[in-house]
Amino acid sequence: MQTENQTSPALRSCKNYVGGEFVDGGRPFEIRNPATGDVHAHAFEADADIVDAAVAAAANALKGDWGQMPLAKRRQMLNAIADGIEARFDDFVEAEIADTGKPYSLADHLDIPRGAANFRIFSDAVANLSTETFQQDTPDGGKALNYAVRKPLGVVGIISPWNLPLLLMTWKAAPAMACGNAVIVKPSEETPSSTTLLGEVMSSVGVPDGAFNVVHGFGPDSAGELLTKHPGVRAITFTGETRTGEAIMKAAAANVKALSFELGGKNAAIVFADADMDAAIAGLARAAFLNTGQVCLAPERIYVERSVFDTFVAGLKGKAEALKPGLPHADGVDFGPLISEEHREKVLGYYQLAVDEGATVVTGGGALDLDDAAARGYFVEPTVWTGLSHDARVCREEIFGPACAVIPFDTEEEAIRLANDSEYGLASSIWTTDMSRAHRVGEAMEVGISWVNCWFLRDLRTPFGGVKMSGIGREGGVHSINFYSEPSNICIKL
Ligand code: NAD
Ligand code: 6OD
Fold this sequence. Notes:
The protein is α/β, with parallel strands linked by helices and 494 residues long. It has 2 domains: 12-263 and 470-493, Aldehyde Dehydrogenase, Chain A, domain 1 (3-Layer(aba) Sandwich); 267-459, Aldehyde Dehydrogenase, Chain A, domain 2 (3-Layer(aba) Sandwich). Helices cover 38% and strands 23% of the residues. The chain has 15 helices and 23 strands. The strands form 6 sheets. The chain has a 7-stranded mixed β-sheet, sandwiched between helices. The chain has a 6-stranded mixed β-sheet with strand order 10-9-8-11-12-22, with helices on both faces. Strand 8 (155-159), helix 6 (165-178) and strand 9 (182-186) form a beta-alpha-beta unit. Helix 3 packs across helix 7 (193-205), helix 5 (104-125) runs parallel beside helix 6 (165-178) and helix 6 (165-178) packs across helix 15 (477-484). The longest helix is centred in the first third of the chain and has 22 residues, at 104-125. 52% of the residues are buried. Residues 1-8 have low confidence and may be disordered. The site of (2E,4E)-2-amino-6-oxohexa-2,4-dienoic acid has 9 residues, from helix 6.
């Protein structure tokens, strides 16, 4: 056992973090930097013994210092974690960049600041919680007082994806801990580094042992499945693919775990002719290509009113072609690689399928050949298609890459119908200067969040989640509190 996560100067070592210590053991596996294809770290796949130990450590924390900690102290602890992330800001940025290959500016402006902000916002969210009180008349003519107390669920398993690793993991760990749960995080096998660093922060700011644990590994037959099936885990909160959500739901059925799912999307944007066209083009270029399109909220279907279709497509093409791909630290780079060779193959498969389905490739459509180290990275071109039918597979299946189909429409009703015709329902983005229309169309969207004249603008107190195959439940502000705690009623006969 050791209290520090040993790192060699050359390769980071991501050990499992159990009961406040980085523990030895587990099968090592390689972590590659997608910008160069080089191995930059090893993580250690947690076996059943390590997962059991993490569950036991979490259960002990709930019985011990963490479970007994007064709310005010727990809130201070959450703020101290945020301070701890900020104190090691550069380390977190470098860890995130090494695992994902994303541009420095993105990790610096989005991923890591949000990792810290998630702890602060949920420290605030639990400050002023009220519960229900009812006084009732009893059958014997007396009275009884009912009041509810909020309790944590217990041990919560957090399974997170690779696209925004620290942001999405802390989006769940922070509210779970704010509510007094002990958590076990299983980060994506592609991106274990920032979660491992967070273990170091937890130790350094004095979070009680076992309140936060990390188990590394894969999904099926590995740490992910072990966690979802473990009888000592009371809830699973998951972000990832819809098919994975289905598998987790089955595995979690055995001991009726509470579930919160943020799943895949095939998001639509609608651009009306009355929109501020420059803003719509800039906003949707950012939406489609940020993080190389690997954002669950990214619009992969853009419906544009016919009279402005050509203007919009020309503008989007210009923005796509102005993106600068390259290594994360290179000057002006704002477009990174896909997460892995395997994911690049999948995205390139969709690029070919689009052509087979009759697309006109407005720009992009292939792999990117870059110089130097980036030549070995998993880069593809930002891609815009027209000429596709709304029913094409590329317009119905989630690609999770920097590609979008632009499709014309003639009426508001048609735009709404096309946008809603999807098995997914995560997010939409509507561009118009007519605010009556904005309200009308926003409400008609079958999604968890509709943005108007913006995209990915987040107020962390608002409900976040998906409908249909895009998720179960809502997180954010009080919605997270409602998932990560449960009211227990006390009835006193007066
Ligand atoms: P993924 O589903 O492949 O993996 C997510 C996590 O689940 C990983 O940690 C993985 O190891 C684990 N996992 C896989 N199979 C498992 C199993 N059988 N049991 C337990 N754990 C298992 O997703 P990904 O490729 O990492 O991320 C991309 C997907 O995530 C996209 O579909 C994207 O839309 C979705 N996503 C959704 C949101 C949202 O808020 N709705 C946010 C980000 C990403
Ligand atoms: O901003 C968030 O809280 C959030 N959950 C974003 C999800 C992004 C998906 O890739």
